[in-house]
Amino acid sequence: MTQKILVLPGDGIGPEITAQASRVLAACQARGLDVEVEEALVGGSAYDAHGEPLPAATLEKARGADAILLGAVGGPKWDTIEDLAKRPEKGLLGLRKNLGLFGNLRPAILYPQLADASSLKPEVVSGLDIMIVRELTGGIYFGQPRGIEERDGERVGFNTYVYAESEIERIGRVAFEMARKRHKKLCSVDKANVLEVTILWREVMERLAPEYPDVELSHLYVDNAAMQLVRAPKQFDVIVTGNMFGDILSDAAAMLTGSIGMLPSASLNESGQGMYEPCHGSAPDIAGQNVANPLATILSVAMMLRYSLNEPVLAERIEAAVGRVLDDGLRTADIASAGTRTVSTTEMGDAVLAAFEAQ
Ligand code: NAI
Ligand code: MG
């Protein structure tokens, strides 16, 4: 059956990088991928056209899509909008919330060609390939009550850290399944020595473990996990953690790989529908200059093929094409180094397409 893909270019460099990713998607269609591709507005571009960052028509199309490819949203142009609900970033949060995209997958892969871009020594990071599974719709970022109020003559800020067993279980299952498909090691990160929520978290992970006897489950406190990530990151295969710890650890892991311009992500819901996007933002400082790195968005298409469209072979083909282009020494400005050739966004797209076709 023909599957539906919705492309949401967004703002800033979003349209430039999604244009290159859409070309790769079209090349997959030419190779037999049976999909129908549609585009819609989100973020600041939607606000400019309709006065809303997430117009009802866009949300409707998103609900009906099997997978969504998003560029990025936001920029200084919209930072002065007084009504916070109308800011571009709310378009993205609205999509995540409305679609129930609780499972955030953020791979941190170091391409061998970019080893000198990492902040760590080559021997510590070479061959790095870890997957962080972050819970995205619960935890302290969403818990109620929250606020800042006056108590006993001073202001008090408070948030609520809460996870239901069912929320922990569903993200746990995503992580166990992921580990099963990879190197069969799952590390659950919590703070069970201090926080009750994560005592429950650890219990639920332990309860699931017998259902995945092929996966080796371990636990780390988040402070130690942060230390281990920079000390010896290759000890990890899959990491599963809650919203806030995952936010922080995945940014740290991202930096190990050198450039945010290389990192894709996926956010999945219970029915397997997914939204795929680069980890970076709309980069207003370089928007419209045809210099942005489109590889994170192109690699997001590969994740889409793997996790939503069940096309692992095409996914590998895209990843191999990216590797080939890096082998050839082509670099956008953000990943350029001595001895490489700096290319534009569109030239990078051309090169990936050519490498894809050549396979
Ligand atoms: P950013 O990720 O947009 O940019 C940070 C730095 O990385 C900038 O110097 C930028 O030029 C560079 N950069 C980012 N992506 C790049 C790429 N593909 N190629 C080359 N260089 C790249 O983060 P920043 O500056 O904090 O935020 C800018 C805007 O993006 C803000 O409005 C923010 O709210 C929004 N944002 C949107 C996100 C999303 O749509 N998922 C995520 C993060 C930020
Ligand atoms: Mg973050």
TrEMBL record:
Pathway it works in: Amino-acid biosynthesis; L-leucine biosynthesis; L-leucine from 3-methyl-2-oxobutanoate: step 3/4
Major localization listed first in the record, in broad terms: cytoplasm
Isopropylmalate dehydrogenase-like domain ranges (all copies): 4-352
GO MF terms held by the record: 3-isopropylmalate dehydrogenase activity
Subunit structure: Homodimer.
The protein's enzyme class: oxidoreductase
Record key words, sorted: Amino-acid biosynthesis, Branched-chain amino acid biosynthesis, Cytoplasm, Leucine biosynthesis, Magnesium, Manganese, Metal-binding, NAD, Oxidoreductase
EC number: 1.1.1.85
Name of the protein this chain belongs to: 3-isopropylmalate dehydrogenase
InterPro entries from the UniProt entry: IsoCit/isopropylmalate_DH_CS (IPR019818), IsoPropMal-DH-like_dom (IPR024084), Isopropylmalate_DH (IPR004429)
